[in-house]
Design goal:
alpha+beta; 5-stranded antiparallel β-sheet; about 35% helix; elongated
Length: about 240
């Protein structure tokens, strides 16, 4: 339908449209634990900037998106700067580190740090926390997560084998099959969303227009290394291009 509409727009108005696939809502998380130091120190004649933190990063319990724990004792990081530390960490989690996708499933503990009576500020501690978090994340066995969809395909029985073969090629896992009274089969499977952008076209092609399907989000799952690498490399290339 989109192809028909875009061709009509091109013919009628002389406007060429650039069409791309939707962006898959990947997520980033970690599998390891690490302690990391973050320091921001800048001196430029007048008042300088100084912030210094030690954080510990580890996976959070299932279902917890982010957990910030304050374990500072003795005032090594003044109480009024601790919210700035958490804010700096949350900003990085929204931006992503590995491939530019939001981070989830993290527990971050503020352990220690130091400050300067004159040069310390909320901004300095926020930057120090950002630096510590980014470095820690890359050293804590980072991985990409992808959305997995529950897919239900209803097709005439003669096409069941072809549909199942196609789902397997799409990294799908067949969960079950159920015959219907009218000679159809209902195939249930779990399939990564990244493989389903053109599935309506695929089903129509395989079944000669006689199949239909529905899908809904189920859960997030680790992206296989061979699939994740091109995604991460593309994100790195895009960041490099923006920087230039």
């Amino acid at each position: 339908h989109l192809e028909v509409i875009t061709s009509r727009i091109a013919r009628k108005y002389g406007v060429d449209l650039v069409i791309s696939l939707p962006r898959v809502p990947y997520r980033e998380t970690i599998r390891g634990s690490v302690r990391m130091e973050g320091k921001h120190k800048k001196q430029s004649g007048g008042k300088g900037q100084f912030g210094h933190v030690w954080i510990e990063m580890e996976p959070a319990e299932a279902g917890v998106g982010f957990d910030f724990v304050d374990k500072v004792v003795g005032g090594s990081v003044p109480r009024n700067y601790i919210p700035a530390v958490e804010k700096g960490i949350r900003e990085v989690m929204e931006e992503g580190v590995l491939a530019g996708y939001p981070i989830q499933g993290i527990r971050c503990t503020l352990l220690d740090g130091s400050y300067h009576d004159v040069d310390s500020s909320e901004m300095a501690f926020k930057i120090a926390a950002r630096n510590a978090f980014k470095t820690a994340f890359l050293n804590a066995k980072p991985i990409l997560l992808e959305p997995i969809m529950k897919v239900e395909v209803r097709v005439p029985e003669t096409y069941m084998g072809d549909i199942m073969s196609d789902l397997n090629k799409k990294r799908g896992r067949i969960a079950g099959m159920e015959p219907t009274d009218d000679g159809h089969q209902i195939i249930r499977a779990s399939v990564p969303l990244a493989e389903l952008h053109r599935y309506a076209i695929d089903v129509r092609s395989i079944t000669q227009g006689r199949g239909e399907f529905s899908m809904e989000f189920d859960h997030y799952e680790e992206v296989p290394a061979q699939v994740a690498k091109p995604i991460i490399d593309a994100a790195a290339a895009a960041r490099k291009e923006e920087a230039e």
